[in-house]
Specification:
It is a lipid-anchor. This is Flagellar L-ring protein. It is found in: Cell outer membrane; Bacterial flagellum basal body. The longest helix has 29 residues, at 4-32. By secondary structure, the chain is of the alpha+beta class. It has four helices and six strands.
């Protein structure tokens, strides 16, 4: 019969070994890139940025729309150009996303918690049997004071957040899906490598065709379910991250 303790230890050992091998592969890749520029990903469809599966959202009932044409007029109401609307509208069309974030936050929280409890129980009289407790319990036990428990806990926490962000970027995105109500799923990725540092910008979300401006651009504030990521890969980004051992220690250390 297998010892449960040994089985658990074997599982933990296998998990640690798998984690070590994974870290070793990542470390080997990073060691292979020493002295070289960080590689950029191959140009491909940004469809995966919007998710592995097609986006499904609540939709109104489909309605058949009649062409909005004016008699004796070549102009179609709602269009931005005389001959054809040049704004992106179909899968594969490209539009520009304007990201202009000027955000700042200053938060300060302080919590203090204390709790105490006191429980006691006694049995001074119970049909005269209370005097027999000494035969089954230690002699020092008094029927008037059988149980007495006390507990107390305290916690004090202080947190402060002071941040300021200003981002002004433009990124070309691709329409990857047209939803049944006409809304457009967009996704885009941009990589710029400067001095061994890869700056990566990603954006994905859902927009309304009406929010696309006449210059074929849309503001990030008009993107529903927006997913915007701006980061980097390279030597500077590595220095800004804590060591793997420190990250593992911070996750596992319970106190």
């Amino acid at each position: 019969m297998r010892d449960p303790l040994l089985s658990t230890a074997a599982r933990l050992g296998a998990l640690a070994l798998a984690g070590g091998l994974l870290a070793a592969c990542n470390t080997a890749d990073r060691l292979a890139q020493v002295g070289q520029e960080p590689p950029q990903s191959a140009v491909g469809s940004p469809e995966r940025l919007a998710g592995e599966r097609p986006v499904v959202m609540p939709m109104p009932k489909p309605q058949v729309q009649e062409p909005n044409r004016q008699a004796n007029s070549l102009w179609t109401p709602g269009t931005r150009a005389f001959f054809k609307d040049q704004r992106a509208s179909e899968i594969g069309d490209i539009l520009t996303v304007r990201i202009e974030i000027d955000d700042s936050a200053n938060l300060s929280n302080e919590t203090s918690r204390t709790r105490s409890a006191n429980e006691s129980a006694g049995l001074p009289a119970f049909l005269g049997y209370e005097q027999s407790l000494g035969s089954v319990l230690p002699e020092a036990v008094s029927p008037e004071s059988l149980v007495e428990a006390q507990s107390g806990s305290g916690h004090t926490g202080v947190g402060t957040v002071d941040r300021s962000e200003e981002i002004n970027l433009r990124i070309a995105s691709l329409i990857t899906q047209v939803l049944p109500n006409g809304n457009l799923v967009i996704a885009g990725r941009q990589e710029v490598r400067v001095n061994y540092e890869n700056r990566i910008l990603q954006v994905a979300g859902v927009i309304r065709p009406e929010d696309i401006d006449s210059d074929n651009s849309v503001s990030y504030e008009d993107i529903a379910e927006a997913r915007i990521a701006y980061g980097g890969e390279g030597q500077l980004s590595d220095v800004q991250q804590p060591r793997y051992g420190q990250q593992v220690y911070d996750i596992l250390f319970p106190f």
